[in-house]
Design goal:
With 274 residues, this protein is an alpha+beta fold. The protein is built from 5 helices and 13 strands. 35% of the residues lie in helices and 35% in strands.
């Protein structure tokens, strides 16, 4: 089949017009978002640390908060960065975690905002051992049960209207779950104490740990979920070790078979020991 030149040109004009309309629409949305941020005096990629924390940047220029108190070291570091519409930012504008642990990192050409979320991590330094706070049990009992309760409630309310259940339930549940999780995350260890949870610390390094092997399997605390008790393990790998002055530096990674553990947020961890 041979198309006439006039038909081809007309098709090209339609495609070009569509592209121009899309680009114009994106540019307009970008300007609207930029204007909104300026009107609200919100600076991109410059959040405010919680009281008592010092702000600095990691090797990838991501925001990190740190606080040291005795042998306890707490951090907020990047967990995830995802694009969000301006409507989402308007909803959380008055939340205490906005522009603290959840903050606008950059604007995208389509007018959406790349939102970064920082996660709370707590460590103990005891002589030649390093411990990380393990809140797996708390996460299971608190956030996941809350999430399931919200889903059950939403489904029951909309049981007679199945067309609305799938989308509305998911969006409402996700929003409530995220809000609850971010509030707990901002409180850090105080959220555990307030909830009456026992705080567990998992050893992740001790002196001469990798003397005979590059990988060590550690026994984790046990967690209970839906009435079932299950034990689980944590495998720690040494990726690299080197000397820096009179200190030994270590790069370690984790294989955590228990999916809901807080330690799964770690890909790698770099630290120094005497």
């Amino acid at each position: 089949m041979i198309m006439k030149k006039s038909t081809i040109c007309f098709a090209c004009i339609l495609i070009a017009a569509t592209l121009c309309e899309t680009v114009y629409g994106q540019a307009n949305d970008y300007l609207k978002t930029l204007t909104w941020f300026r009107e609200h005096n919100i600076t991109l990629n410059d959040p405010t640390p919680p009281p008592g924390y010092r702000k600095f940047r990691d090797c990838d220029s991501n925001v990190v908060y740190k606080k040291t108190s005795g042998d306890t070291v707490t951090y907020y570091s990047l967990r995830i960065a995802v694009p969000r519409p301006l409507a989402y930012i308007k909803k959380i504008l008055t939340k205490p975690y906005f522009n603290v642990t959840v903050y606008p990192k950059s604007l995208r050409p389509d007018g959406s905002v790349l939102m970064a979320s920082l996660v709370y991590r707590c460590f103990l330094l005891r002589k030649d051992s390093l411990f990380a706070m393990d809140i797996a049990g708390k996460e299971i009992f608190n956030t996941y049960q809350k999430m399931q309760a919200v889903i059950d409630s939403a489904v029951n309310k909309q049981l007679n209207d199945p067309d609305d259940v799938s989308y509305k339930t998911i969006t409402e549940t996700t929003a409530k779950y995220e809000d609850s999780a971010e509030l707990n995350n901002l409180e850090g260890i105080q959220a555990l104490f307030r909830g009456g949870y026992h705080v567990n610390f998992q050893v992740i390094y001790y002196k001469n740990m990798f003397l005979h092997s590059d990988s060590i399997v550690l026994q984790r605390n046990r967690a209970i979920y839906s009435g079932d008790t299950s034990g689980f393990h944590l495998t720690v790998h040494v990726e690299k070790e080197w000397e820096l002055g009179n200190r030994s530096c270590h790069l370690i990674s984790f294989d955590d078979k228990y999916l809901f553990s807080s330690l799964t947020y770690f890909d790698n961890l770099v630290f120094a020991s005497d």
